[in-house]
Amino acid sequence: MNPVLAELHDKARAVLDPVHYDFFAGGVGDEVVLAENEAAFLRLALLPRVLRGKKVSDAFPVLISPTAFHKLAHPDGELATARAAAGTILVSSMASTVPIADVVAAATGPVWFQLYVQPDPEVTQALVRRAERAGCTALVVTVDSPVFGRHRRDIAHGFHDLPAGLAAENMRDLHGVPGLRKIEMSAFSWEDIDRLRSMTSLPLWVKGVLHPADAVLAVAHGVAGIVVSNHGGRQLDLTPAAVEALPGVVDAVAGRVPVVLDGGVRSGGDIALALALGASAVGIGRPVLWGLAADGEAGVRRVLDVLRDEYEHVLAMCGGELTRDMVVVRGTGVSGWRG
Ligand code: FNR
């Protein structure tokens, strides 16, 4: 791993309350998927192309994936993340410890709002209006969480609520309910996606699609984009690594909407591999939390700077273009994806 990212992780681990470190670091069940998300990238290699004479573009195809409760990592919480997010898209979690309006005000670039559809449709609608009023430019509906993942580390610590003084601020005072409404998980359906689309003119993405058939349905239901994700190994400990599910979704979507990949992206090389397999961009979860915990806004900036620098270097080495035929499965010599 890049030594800067390793240093930020180690510092985060040293400064965080171990209960909160485990909340950020942990996954569901035996944490098989958590490990696989990273391991799968290490099983892939790239056959660079040469003599292409291409100038590398300066686009940085990275989003900050939505993660909950940034004030557990640093007192500035999501404000620090937003300030550091320049040059990327910040997908702000519905479970932020700063209200979405303040997150958007602190950001210099686009902010998208991640939403868990709530059992009470009025609460869902109120959240959408909060995101719109705040100036978010897209909604990202997380669809992989019909129930909470069972995180053994959190269970062992008895961690199931925020410490006093912190709150999921976007839930505050909804519909005159005094105090805080807790976020609930809900088994909703494509009809709810249709309802959401008719409720708002914001582009609507779905996050947490792994099966190609669901990707086809998502396109049919008019989504603006798809995030291939297993929630960083936090929901079902039986899925493939996220990057292994990517080519199937890319093929099913056939270019009709952009596909973003998150889970296990830890280097510029990982970004390049995901793009070669057809992703338009990648999302970064935990490394941002490590930067935030280690050094607030400056730490998040360092994470993004390292990834940008590594990615540009790999891209230049590969002739400025990344295509699926360049991807080789290590130990097989087979190029192209036989997923
Ligand atoms: C998450 N993730 C997440 N996803 C989401 O849609 N809403 C959320 O509130 C959260 N919260 C959350 C908290 C923590 C601590 C983690 C680690 C993750 C999932 C997240 O958006 C993303 O899918 C993964 O984090 C990507 O994997 P990596 O980059 O962490 O490996």
Automatic annotation (TrEMBL):
The keyword Aminoacyl-tRNA synthetase does not apply. Its cofactor is FMN. The keyword Oxidoreductase applies. Residues 1-336 form the FMN hydroxy acid dehydrogenase domain. It holds the Pfam family FMN_dh. InterPro entries: Aldolase_TIM, Alpha-hydoxy_acid_DH_FMN, FMN-dep_DH, FMN_HAD, FMN_hydac_DH_AS. PANTHER family: 2-HYDROXYACID OXIDASE 1, S -2-HYDROXY-ACID OXIDASE-RELATED. This is Alpha-hydroxy-acid oxidizing protein.
